[in-house]
Specification:
Blueprint lengths: L6 E2 L6 E2 L5 E4 L2 E4 L17 E5 L2 E4 L3 H6 L15 E2 L2
Antiparallel strand pairs: 1-2, 3-4, 5-6, 5-7
C-alpha cells in the first residue's frame, strides 16, 4: 500500500516518501525492508502470520522464543495482541 503522506518508519526512523510502498501494523508504518521479525530479522511479507508484542514484530516461528526470552516486560503499556496476518 502507498504511504500517501511523508513520515518516518517505525523501525529505522528514516523518512518515508509519500509515493513509497509501506507495511502497516497497529498504527505503525514501516519500509518494506524494515517490516521484519525482531528475532530472526526475516522479512514479513503479505500472507505471513506475525505477532505484535510490546511494539515489536515477531514471525510465527519466533513468537514462543520472544515470550520465553522476556520481551514481555510490561503488558500494561502495550498489550499482547493475538496473531495477525499480513494483508
Amino acid at each position: 500500500r502507498l504511504f500517501g503522506n511523508s513520515g518516518a518508519c517505525s523501525a529505522c526512523g528514516q523518512s518515508i516518501p509519500a509515493s513509497e510502498l509501506v507495511m502497516r501494523a497497529q498504527g505503525n508504518v514501516y519500509h518494506l525492508k524494515c517490516f521484519t521479525c525482531s528475532t530472526c530479522r526475516n522479512r514479513l511479507v503479505p500472507g505471513d502470520r506475525f505477532h505484535y508484542i510490546n511494539g515489536s514484530l515477531f514471525c510465527e516461528h519466533d513468537r514462543p522464543t520472544a515470550l520465553i526470552n522476556g520481551h514481555l516486560n510490561s503488558l500494561q503499556s502495550n498489550p499482547l495482541l493475538p496473531d495477525q496476518k499480513v494483508n
